[in-house]
Amino acid sequence: MKPRLPLIGEPLAVDLVNTRAITPDGPVDFMGTPAELWEWLTRQADRMTTPTQSERTSLSRADLAAVHEVREHAARALTQIRLGKRPPADALRGLNDAQRAAPGIRKLSWRGGSLVGTVERPGSLGARVAADLAEAAAELLTDPIIEALRECEERNCVMLFIATNPRRRWCSPAICGNRVRVARYYQRHKADA
């Protein structure tokens, strides 16, 4: 049985990369099907333009492949940056190409007595979603906060997070942090027995 979707709330590009994980049963892709992509997009609705309900049925394997490609480019770039190395040129080119495939146009409108700008993108659903995610990756890669990007220290976890507190060691103190504390407790009491 596939575990539930990973935690969200990190920068969008980190949440995207975190849709691939290693579990005790092996690698898991939380975005392995168009339906799972839809579920993830729904959970991210407050942070990106979510496809409409009528577009849900039009999510195709090609759309999923476009998002997977951006995820792979983002993961490779973030890994190298995290290690203090230069990101692969093909990963950066892939992120740029995804943005270029559906460039964002800020559409201005008057709502409720104020001017509102929303980004609209042309193209297929997959190209639009991939462009949004590639833009999020580009923003994170160029933001100084990238220096706080960490991988969870729980030995069975590969999730990334932004350590806003320099003492933060786990993607989730309630999940991974608890696992580490329970394991330490067990080891201490096992040694005493």
From TrEMBL:
Domain Zinc finger CGNR: start-end pairs: 149-189
Annotated signal peptide: none
Pfam families given in the database record: ABATE (PF07336), zf-CGNR (PF11706)
Descriptive protein name: CGNR zinc finger domain-containing protein
InterPro entries: ABATE, ABATE_dom_sf, Znf_CGNR
Organism, scientific name: Saccharopolyspora oryzae
Lineage of the species this protein comes from: Bacteria, Bacillati, Actinomycetota, Actinomycetes, Pseudonocardiales
